[in-house]
Here is the input.
Amino acid sequence: MTTTTTDTARTPGPRALARARRRRAAARFWRQYRDHRAGVAGLAVLVLIALVALAAPLLVGAGSQSVTDAPGGPLEPPSGAFPLGTDQFGRSLLALLVWGTRVSLTVGLLAAFLSVAIGTLVGITAGHFKGWYGNVVMRVTDWFLVMPTLVLAIALATVLSRSLWTTVLAIGVTTWPTTARLVRAQTLSVESRPYIERSRALGGGHGHIMSRHVLPNVMPLVLAQTTLVISTAILTEATLAFLGLGDPTIVSWGGLLQDAREAGAVSSGNWWYLAPPGLAIAVVALAFTLCGRTVESVLNPRLGVNR
Amino acid sequence: MVTRFPPRSSRPRGRVRILLASGAAALALAAGSVVPGNPVGPAPQEARAADGGKSTLTVAVAQSVDSLSPFLAQRLLSTSIHRLMYDFLTNYDAKDSHTVPGLATAWEPSPDKLTWTYTIRSDSTWSDGEKATAEDAAWTFNRMMTDEGAATSNGSFVGNFKKVTAPSPDKLVIELKQPQATMTALDVPIVPKHVWEKVGDFSKFNNDTKFPIVGNGPFILTDYKVDSYVKLEANKDFWRGAPKFDELVFRYYKDQDAAVAALRKGEVSFVAGSPSLTPAQAASLKSADDIKVNDAPGRRFYALAVNPGARTRDGKKFGDGHPALLDQKVRQALFTAVDRTAVIDKVFQGHAVEGEGYIPPRYGSYFWQPSPEQKLAYDPAKAAALLDEAGYRKNRAGKRTGKDGRPLDFRILCHATDPNDKAIGKYLQEWWGDLGIGLEVDCRDNVSDPWYAGEYDLAFDGWSVNPDPDFVMSIHTCAALPAKAKESAATDNFICDKQYDELYARQLAEYDPAKRADLVKRMESRLYDTGYMNVMAYPNAVEAYRTDQIASITTMPSDAGNIFGQDGYWSWWSAVPAAGASGGPSGGGSSTGVLVGVGIAVVVLAGGGLLFAMRRRSTAEDRE
Here is the structure.
């Protein structure tokens, strides 16, 4: 009894070993990530925007979305009281922009997660079961790949009722094919390695191989892909909302642009209504892309030197 | 021919078209949607310029044509075009809306008021050369009386007709079952018998197969492309005199801001708005050169309709309206919590008049106001008391629930194309939310499907009202209810009230104008009390035109009246081309907003392009 305890104390168990290894890997990842200036800048912007989104109720107050007690007059230009002017209801556009951050980030993250989850599932299974199943699934993927994403998303958003979840679903189920193809390629390469054969010889089943050997090996790719898909998802969400296919009752950046168009802000030259949401969309999409690119080049040594 | 506005399409339209339109709009977004001036769809080449001395008046419209058949058309645009294509028996004077001769030069009732004799003019010819006679008019009315399919849009006028004959080419005799007050306001386009008797199924024929369409109005329709344009040419032989413009084009703009930009550039001469220009657009156009903004009292009302429990004529219930709305107290409480002053000030920004009775104040003799004790003035405390009285009390979570525990959560149908619907929906959510009532704003491109199916609780509703109020009153009678569940019918909102119906029958039979007006007012009072149709506002007609293309145009009524959607053809018939209307776009001074908009579009596009390029580069190397 005593010997065993001292043994475990001296030589750490497999769990502790794994934990220490992961910690080292994370530290190495962060060291390499730090070297990419663009990635750090993107991350800083994202952290800032995430903080703004989380602190929205504290920053601008819950009442700033209310139309009945809007403080300003309709379509006021920027002033001291309203740094970005007001909308047609007299609400502060800065406050609405802050609230819109939440929707854009939520939809972007959820839709990207959904899209990558579907893509990974399809990719791994198609790469693992190479027979007729893989063929059929990849033909379906090809079909989705050639379908214009936006048209498909519009069709879905039109048929379903208008809500945040519809937007997430519409984006998620239309943008997965690229991920699926990427993951399948990686799966094929991983499965040709000798240790998979060994594992199979030792009696590892399909589920074991896919979840224990293939998934951890495609994970870095999936992570990088997620970060990149988020920016596409945010852009698509804004587009759908701008086309009036979003939930009109929630404030989002695309929805603000749509409101601006409906109020006639474009032809009346009320630039303060149009410019901030447009710029916000561009900045967030860019930040996610920068992060995604950096993650990609850190995790994939073959992408080589710092670009 | 009163017309529902905002549009509620009378037949289900293909989703495909919506998709295509959205797709086009998406393209516009990608190409910098904020750059106005790109009409959706291929526009016919600009012909406004004085090429070959031909003058063209181009009107930007936001509504699409539902049907070119006068027997089916219900939308404002289509019925306005029919006024230009076909002459009616009588017309309304542009100045004060009194009845003036149309195809009929004189009319005479018999002493018992049951037989009306019209003298038909001899100088009206169809555009194919045949003479327009009483025979054409008699055939038109008889067709509507015998064919259900031909009675779709104007059936209410002939429901009381016994017999219509044409004893001679210049004499039309209508025999009635009961006296009918609308005999000098029969807003029915008279069609040429020799063309239309070849038509098989009137409920399917849309009159858009053979151009030019034979007519006898001030304009002849020469070309039409769905959701693109309607082209009309002046009828040089029109008996009242030829129109001054040679050509009239109604061009479809899905996006109102694009239409306004087209007006600024001179691509169109007139913008009607859908249903009117926004306050911001009106304000910015007022300061533009060579553009006149016409802001006049409108002929529409804008109301909150409550589903009274949809049912068929024989009493079969259908639809899924909230049962709490069957309680008059609940309906009145909802309206009592609506601050009409805020709606006028904030949403319409003064371009509307606060709603009272059903008929707009423009028709002074029929305009009715609730008495002080009857009036449901804005009073949230009173609304809460009414709901308490009706047995809907607040629970611990602050929600009002009925005795069965069902919370007061309502849906409101809103037109996705009408910004006012969405804006007022936001206010309603807050006003009613304070009372403990939930509201889901359900905005749709096509509201007619749930509407006819009775699957709504509340809805934003609005109609243009004619000088004669018979039609807008008739759509709330029990007789207008659908024969079968979910079928389209004349009814507006499934209202069926015995007291109202009795008054309706009496006013229709009343020839004395003062007595009839009194009956109409009593109907309005009854409608107000039921709380089924709560008029929030009478929106102004806010429209704009280029003064360097249109020298003068008649409004109706002539002082402070609207131009688009008149009860007659006066505006387009009277419009005079401006001397020396030059071709080139004249409104070069586009505003900073456009420039900034273009800037944003460029930034977004550049970002997108960068993203795309980076992804391409990375993924190519990624694959093993």
In short: Chain A touches chain B through 61 residues (CB under 8 Å). The radius of gyration of chain A is 24 Å. The first helix of chain A runs from residue 2 to 10. Chain A has a mean pLDDT of 88.
